[in-house]
Amino acid sequence: MTRTVEYDVVVLGAGPTGENVAGRARDAGLSVAVVESELVGGECSYWACMPSKALLRPVVARADARRVPGLRQAVDGPLDVAAVLAHRDAYTSHWKDDGQVAWIDSIGARLYRGHGRLHGPRRVVVDGPEGEHHVLTARHAVAVCTGSRPALPELPGLAGAKAWTSREATSAQAVPGRLAIVGGGVVAVEMATVWQALGSRVTLLIRGAGALPRMEPFAGEQVLASLVEAGVDVRTGVSVAALVRDGDGGPVTVVLEGSDKFEADEVLLATGRAPRTDDIGLETVGLEPGGWLPVDDSLRVTGSDWLYGVGDVNHRALMTHQGKYQARIAGDAIAARAAGAEATETGRWGAHAATADHAAAPQVVFTDPEVGAVGLTLADAERAGHRVRAVDQDLTSVAGSGLYADGYRGHARIVVDLDREILLGATFVGPGVGELLHSATVAVAGEVPVDRLWHAVPAYPTISEIWLRLLEAYREDQG
């Protein structure tokens, strides 16, 4: 049976981004349909942020405890693998989405289960799981919030190898004896941290010279050094040539370029992300299927007055918190335009401009040590033509680090725009530094002058006192 229903807004994808677009639109009094082909809550809730951080938390907490006198003896032993996995399962709601479905119902939006495709301007066709066929039309906007998926390399033997992606790595119910991880980004180093601590023998294969290539070089260096200390076999400057699985459940032979090879029980390919836009009908509105969606700062697709690309699909900042930020911007812009606003606030830092994607997008890597970064790296700032200075400090220069843990190791850097005397970026590496990041984000996003930051006094004795050391060093450099 085919039904045609009209809404003010149709949202494709019910992950955190789609949920937030729907919520903002409903807050403005607009009628909303949400279309989802998998679990409501999306990648973050079931295969990314939530399960990965649930797996990482006991690993990092144990590492921290082992550095505290009087406590290390109490945690001298292996992790309880069953309890760690059960904790992870609880945080994914055991891969059931009842709670998030209830939330969509509670805001008065209508959920359509099934695969949604654009079918011309302002029109979405949904094929339901039991043969239902719905045609949804949008008075004001269609928001594409379908996210991203793992991008897999073209390798001989890939199909037969049944390699893990991030989904399998965060949802596995048993620890592999030997795990090969291909990649050097966030997923690769976080999953190496988890599975090594849970008892797997991990080999990390990185094509480039180091890990976390989009961050300051010292971040990847310290994370890799810690992984090596934990027992991970880290190999840089290597490329995988082929994968060969021995039988249905046998080991995988990982063949490297140059003919070197070794065996693993599972292989995780953490080699990047691709947009989930290949089968959503983009061709019916003149766009290339399978590509990233080009958008303006209000998240409206270039050349359209009704189509929005929000979250991972626009490739601006592939992080859940940035997708939710974009959703708040897009939802408010859709509502303003629906109300007939003559102009939306799309100027720099306007209410309808996702400026932080360019200038102040924060990210935490939950390894041991943690990495927290916001804004531009030194190299990025120099490439952009800014006249900058990097100020570096060892985190052991503050009393709070020694109290946090014996043998604390960490590093901090701020990147200062010398012409405007504001911060363009900041990076911290060390145990617990994720909680330092929001202060840096406020400084970067708020363009707080350095001489004003001098009056933001950090509490003693905390690791936050590194701000004082950084600002002192900058003032000394300036003479």
From TrEMBL:
<keyword id="KW-0274">FAD</keyword>
<dbReference type="InterPro" id="IPR050151">
    <property type="entry name" value="Class-I_Pyr_Nuc-Dis_Oxidored"/>
</dbReference>
<dbReference type="InterPro" id="IPR023753">
    <property type="entry name" value="FAD/NAD-binding_dom"/>
</dbReference>
<dbReference type="InterPro" id="IPR004099">
    <property type="entry name" value="Pyr_nucl-diS_OxRdtase_dimer"/>
</dbReference>
<dbReference type="InterPro" id="IPR016156">
    <property type="entry name" value="FAD/NAD-linked_Rdtase_dimer_sf"/>
</dbReference>
<dbReference type="Pfam" id="PF07992">
    <property type="entry name" value="Pyr_redox_2"/>
</dbReference>
<feature type="domain" description="FAD/NAD(P)-binding">
    <location>
        <begin position="7"/>
        <end position="322"/>
    </location>
</feature>
<dbReference type="InterPro" id="IPR036188">
    <property type="entry name" value="FAD/NAD-bd_sf"/>
</dbReference>
<feature type="domain" description="Pyridine nucleotide-disulphide oxidoreductase dimerisation">
    <location>
        <begin position="362"/>
        <end position="467"/>
    </location>
</feature>
<dbReference type="Pfam" id="PF02852">
    <property type="entry name" value="Pyr_redox_dim"/>
</dbReference>
<keyword id="KW-0520">NAD</keyword>
<comment type="similarity">
    <text>Belongs to the class-I pyridine nucleotide-disulfide oxidoreductase family.</text>
</comment>
<keyword id="KW-0285">Flavoprotein</keyword>
<protein>
    <submittedName>
        <fullName>NAD(P)/FAD-dependent oxidoreductase</fullName>
        <ecNumber>1.-.-.-</ecNumber>
    </submittedName>
</protein>
<keyword id="KW-0560">Oxidoreductase</keyword>
<dbReference type="GO" id="GO:0016491">
    <property type="term" value="F:oxidoreductase activity"/>
</dbReference>
<dbReference type="InterPro" id="IPR001100">
    <property type="entry name" value="Pyr_nuc-diS_OxRdtase"/>
</dbReference>
